[in-house]
Amino acid sequence: MKQIELLLLETIDNLGIVGDVVKVKPGFARNYLLPHGMAEAPTEEKIKELSARRAEVEAELKKIRSEQEALLEKLSGVELTLERSANESGLLFGGVSQHDISEALKAQGFDVEDRHVRIGEKINRLDTYDIPIQLAKELKCEIKLWVVSDKPLEELEAEAAEAEAAEKAEIEKEAAEVDDD
Fold first, then answer.
1. Of 4, 7, 15, 45, which sees the most CB atoms within 10 A?
2. 36-73 confidence digits (pLDDT tens)
3. HSE-up of 139 (CA within 13 Å, CB side)?
4. Angle CA(127)–CA(166)–CA(170) in degrees, nearest 5?
């Protein structure tokens, strides 16, 4: 598999920061990096020219990293409760998404983006969940999420009893019709 070397003129997530010489596939270089002016062929002069900007970016990344570590420390042990409409068997009418969790955390003062919340699929049941939060490759923690009904427990139990009574009445009605035949 052939790869080519390029000098990054911009910081690119999951690839490198300004001034890095990286190896990429020719298609990625030809179709994305080069046309967007994000990279060029590495030369000694250009590497020296970008060294000051690289130092600035490294300092900024260190600052961001320390902020993320502080946020992670505050996040560990956080419990979050979200109220949602649900039927009597606990299935949600809509569900809870990464965005919902992120917004609830932001409302509590935590700067967590949607992409940091790692739930996989939408949550569709009333229950308790351990939600992974990943700010960077090795910066991870879990928070506890309680998905509860927006109706009081008595109301849910009454709905369940009504549904069960209606089902029982339907079965008795069908049995009576079968007996008449």
1. 7
2. 999 998 888 888 888 888 888 889 989 989 998 888 88
3. 17
4. 130
CATH homologous superfamily, domain 4-67: Ribosomal protein L9, N-terminal domain (3.40.5.10)
Contact between 115 and 52 (Cβ < 8 Å): no
Contact between 54 and 18 under an 8 Å Cβ cutoff? The reply is yes
The answer to whether residue 28 scores a pLDDT higher than 60 is yes
| Sign of the four-CA dihedral 17, 23, 25, 27 | positive
Q: How many CA atoms lie within 13 A of 100 on its CB side?
A: 18
As a whole number of angstroms, the distance between CA 141 and CA 105 comes to: 14
Q: Flag whether pLDDT at 123 surpasses 60.
A: yes
Distance CA 136, CA 147 (A): 26
| Residue pointed to by tokens 């002069």 | 45
pLDDT at 158 over 80: no
Pairing of strands 4-8, 127-136: unpaired
Give the per-residue pLDDT at 52: 84
Q: Are 147 and 129 in contact (CB under 8 A)?
A: yes
Reported CATH class of domain 76-158:
alpha beta
